[in-house]
Amino acid sequence: MSTLTAQLTLSSTNSTSNKLNLTVSDTLTTSIPHQGLTRVAITTADDQQILSTASGIYYVYIKNLDATNFVILQTVASVQWGRISAGEFAFFAVNDSAGLELRADTASCNVEYSYWTKG
Amino acid sequence: MATLTSKLTLQSSDLTSDALSLTTTTTFTGSHTSGLAREELKSVSKTIRITCVDGDADVPAALTHQGQYIDITDNHGLKKRYVFIDGSNSTVATGTILASDTDIGSNTPANLGLLDIVGGIAIDVTDGMQQRDYIATLVLAINHANGHNGSITAGAIAAEADGPQSTTLTNPTSGESGLFEVAADDSTITVLLDNTKDTAATNSKKDHPIIISKSKYAAPSIHYIKNTSAYHDTNNIVYLYLDNHAGSDIMEIRGGQFAYFPGSNSADLRAYTSTSGTIVEHMAVGTES
User: Is residue A7 part of a domain?
Assistant: First the structure.
């Protein structure tokens, strides 16, 4: 077992009349398989699998490195649920057996990702 | 336009031979935000069921329940209102569509001031039935040609027994979601078990709060979701699913953990939990569509 510390800070001075300054942090117990930071080109084709439907819960980090186009997050059943714009990122836990696929919408995008199996 | 700055830091020193220390920052502009909100998740299941309080409890007078109803909506949005009629004083059969001049027992909906049940589907119950029989007759109405007629299959209820008894609603169409709405909170039926939210109680997707509404923000919008419970390996897990045809879980968040993602908002994102009473904190930033 290993640990991964994840911290997220959200801040804004103009989203509402009250400043937003939110920080959450958690120490996650992780195991293998683990995929270290990886950079790949994601095309507009369907079925570009990052995680299969194999049993397990995975913590996933993804960043879209493209300067213009967005990348779609979807289950292995091609149910779209997320959209990462140029330069944006996401961090979440994939549900057991849901799997994860990436798909560029307009043109191929370079993407950085990593995942950790929940320990 | 407001600007949201998001920073994520990931660190690990013991998983691989090379320590991880990653920090990434992005900014997002949007005109609107939900603000931080908290929801208590009560439903512990995606099984859709309708439950009576006590299966072997006698219901001496059907008249007591005349005009009581429950609304059920299938996964395509087909909504039907099922209405108890006093079959001991009416000849109306289960499955009949009620008109304003239909005799539902003591009188007609028009004369009783019950016009909200006109167009509803009759559930014919009689004096001396048990609560279990009320659910069994509701099953007949749901499966009737004038009821949901196959878009929902209401399962048979077990033989009369003490305690809560249920019918389970499923979708007979392969590949489609079996997540229906049972408007128990708006129902006037008094033999319904709804308030306990345990594994036996009436349950439907109405018991799964919408964390992200598909019609609220243009895609993408930024979403933060946190499970405020303490970590436990099997308790207080938050499950998130898209309310679409598949209806399958896409994400889970355990106690103390969080998710951050830009949503495509293609369907409502709903939540339920492994343990009733789990509180989820969430916020969206985007531009309203």
Answer: no
Q: Give me the residue spans of the domains in chain B.
A: 2-44+208-286, 48-207
Domain of A100: which CATH number? Answer: 2.60.120.10
Question: Tens digit of pLDDT for each residue in B262-287?
Answer: 999 989 999 999 999 999 999 999 99
Q: Quick check: is A79 in a domain? A: yes
Give the DSSP letter string of B46-81: --EEEEES-TT-EE--GGGGTT-EEEEE-TT--EEE
| CB within 8 Å of chain A, chain B residues 12-31 | 12, 14-16, 18, 20, 22, 24, 26, 28, 30
Question: Taking the alpha carbons of B266, B237, A77, A70 in that order, is the dihedral positive or negative?
Answer: positive
Task: Compute the nearest-CA separation of B224 from chain A (Å).
Answer: 9
What is the nearest CA distance from B209 to chain A, expressed in angstroms?
17
Rounded to an integer, what distance in angstroms lies between the CA atom of residue B273 and that of residue B12?
29
Q: How far is A19 from chain B (nearest CA, A)?
A: 11
Number of domains in chain A: 1
Which residues 53-112 of chain A have a CB within 8 Å of chain B? 57, 61, 63, 70, 72-73, 75, 77, 79-85, 87-96, 98
Given a contact cutoff of 8 angstroms between Cβ atoms, the answer to whether B84 and B180 are in contact is no
Residue A3 counted as domain residue: no
Q: State the ipTM, two decimals.
A: 0.89
Query: Does the domain formed by B2-44+208-286 have CATH 3.30.2290.10?
Result: no
Find the farthest-apart pair of alpha carbons in chain A and give their distance in angstroms, rounded.
46
Domain residue limits at A45:
30-118
In a domain, A40, yes or no: yes
Q: A 8-37 residues with CB below 8 A of B?
A: 8-16, 20, 22, 24, 26, 28, 30, 34, 36-37
Query: Whole-prediction pTM value?
Result: 0.90
Name residue A12's beta-bridge partners. A20
